[in-house]
Amino acid sequence: AGWFRRLLHKPKPRSSESSLHTICSASSSPSSSSAESSGSSSGTSLARSIRPSPVSVSDINASGSARWAKSYDVCICHSEVDLELVEELVSYLESQPESFRCFLQLRDATPGSAVMTELCDAVQNSHCWVMLITPSFLRDPWCKYQMHQALAEAPMANGRTIPVLKDVDRKDYPRELRNLYYIYMALKENSFRQIRDTVVRYLQELCRSSTSRTE
Fold first, then answer.
1. Where are any strands of DSSP class E within the chain?
2. Considering the domain boundaries, does residue 49 fall inside one?
């Protein structure tokens, strides 16, 4: 009887402790990912609320950020045939809260400079390189040259070279890029968002590693 009375009078955990336990359980349980993928609002909100964001947009944009060590955030490598689409992508990226600095060859190249010099400088002075791989890209020797320059600059750097396939079969995907995942442009808006998220992720890693070196 004594143990039963103690059980009845056992204090209930505080609501904050209960919610903390719920969040911890959601983060450690494999079912949280399935809940998120199935569209459960509670599972999604819990998973996102505990996801760390060690480097914010303000950190990326800070005056002392490693981002400013280069002239451009993104260099777009493309065929002139695809200029209209590329201009839409550049307009999208430059209008984001991060105000990405994009190198667009026909807009930003110095008149009178050698094409080879401009392409090399654009690669060296950019953090990330978007390769818009279309049938025209595959036929353009200057596009292939710039692609090789990017791979020589950082052959295994995650997130620096961003291949984007449009109207190209997977079998025609350049062999030089086979070790990199690519974005397949089906819906333009989704692809633009993926490119933006990839650039943000790389800049976050860049700022994080730069901060750790200075501490």
1. 72-77, 102-103, 126-133, 161-165, 183-184
2. no
Taking the C-alpha atoms of residue 133 and residue 95, their distance in angstroms, rounded to an integer, is 23
108 assigned to some structural domain: yes
Pairing verdict, β 183-184 and 126-133:
unpaired
Tens-of-pLDDT digits for all 215 residues of the chain?
A: 554 455 445 444 444 343 333 333 333 333 333 333 333 333 333 233 333 345 566 677 776 678 999 999 999 999 999 999 999 999 999 999 999 999 998 899 999 999 899 999 999 999 999 999 999 999 999 999 999 999 998 876 677 999 999 999 989 999 999 989 999 999 999 999 999 999 999 999 888 877 666 55
* 76 SS3 class: strand
Place of tokens 């819990």: 46
- Owner of token pair 């025209």: 136
Q: What is the DSSP letter of 204?
A: H
Decide if 146 is inside a domain. Answer: yes
